[in-house]
């Protein structure tokens, strides 16, 4: 299967600590790829590089056939890349609906605050909130939401990037430990959203520590160890390899 996104010989260090070392990995459309590995193995560094929050020293990123030496954070949505964060990032003093509208309306926060949104944006915002199960909270302050609801709102914001006319249609979605700390029913809801994105042709990158979930919903699995590629393939095959069990599971 042809890839839509490829990291080619990427190296990244933080001070004297090597986060990624000459790493080459690729991601396909219509595929959920799980990034797994011990803490500090480089998973979130990949997410930060792809969303423009980290600059790598060596290598290049190829997206839609175009090679790049860096990604500016403001350019990621224009490239069709959206993500969630381990530490949830929402506008807590804005309403739940405004958290969606601020993305649907214009490119920047300030323009959105001073620009009237139309019926089309409100209609799309309601559709997104209904999709993530937050329609009943649309007028609540985002900061008042429960932990799980805040995660749903962040996912709603990812969906808004996909549907905002100002941005390129999303074709890469990165979910950074989005299932952590959630109840089973919330996990099912988010898993359904992620699988629906996959079915729409999005290349989903899922950073996850729950191996049962990886086996259940991921199509591919990439295992990292100390910033290097340890194994890749189907979850059942990769997670049963001796070197993976030794490095990641400690058995």
Note the topology:
Elements (H helix, E strand, L loop, with lengths): L2 E12 L2 E12 L2 E6 L6 H8 L7 E6 L2 E3 L12 E3 L12 H10 L3 H5 L5 H14 L14 H17 L8 E5 L7 H16 L3 E5 L3 H7 L2 E6 L2 E6 L1 H4 L3 H8 L2
Parallel strand pairs: 3-8, 3-9, 6-7, 7-8
Antiparallel strand pairs: 1-2, 1-4, 4-5, 9-10
Using the alpha-carbon principal axes, give the shape.
globular
Oligomer type: single chain
Any idea what the CATH architecture of one domain is? 3-Layer(aba) Sandwich
Mean pLDDT: 89
Just give the CATH class of one domain.
Answer: Alpha Beta
The helix content is: 25-40%
Q: What do we call the CATH homologous superfamily of one domain?
A: P-loop containing nucleotide triphosphate hydrolases
- The helix count comes to 9
Q: Strand-residue fraction?
A: 25-35%
Low-confidence spans? none
Radius of gyration: 18 Å
Would you tell me which CATH topology of one domain applies?
Answer: Rossmann fold
User: What is the strand arrangement across the widest sheet?
Assistant: 6-7-8-3-9-10
């Amino acid at each position: 299967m042809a890839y839509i996104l490829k990291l080619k010989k990427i190296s990244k260090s933080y001070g004297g600590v090597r986060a990624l070392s000459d790493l080459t990995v690729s991601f396909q459309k219509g595929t959920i790829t799980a990034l797994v590995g011990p803490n500090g193995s480089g998973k979130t560094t990949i997410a930060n590089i792809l969303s423009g929050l980290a600059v790598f020293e060596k290598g290049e990123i190829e997206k839609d056939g175009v090679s790049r030496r860096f990604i500016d954070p403001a350019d990621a949505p224009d490239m069709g890349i959206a993500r969630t964060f381990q530490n949830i990032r929402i506008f807590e003093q804005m309403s739940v609906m405004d958290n969606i509208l601020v993305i649907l309306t214009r490119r920047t926060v300030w323009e959105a605050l001073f620009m009237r949104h139309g019926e089309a944006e409100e209609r799309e915002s309601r559709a997104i909130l209904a999709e993530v199960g937050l329609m009943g909270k649309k007028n609540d302050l985002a900061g008042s939401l429960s932990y799980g609801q805040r995660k749903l709102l962040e996912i709603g914001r990812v969906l808004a990037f996909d549907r905002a006319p100002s941005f390129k249609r999303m074709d890469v979605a990165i979910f950074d430990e989005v299932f952590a700390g959630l109840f089973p029913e919330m996990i099912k809801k988010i898993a359904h959203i992620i699988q629906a994105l996959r079915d729409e042709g999005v290349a989903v990158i899922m950073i996850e520590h729950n191996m049962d979930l990886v086996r259940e919903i991921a199509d591919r699995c990439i295992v990292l160890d100390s910033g290097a590629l340890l194994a890749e393939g189907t979850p059942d095959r990769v997670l049963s390899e001796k070197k993976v069990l030794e490095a990641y599971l400690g058995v």
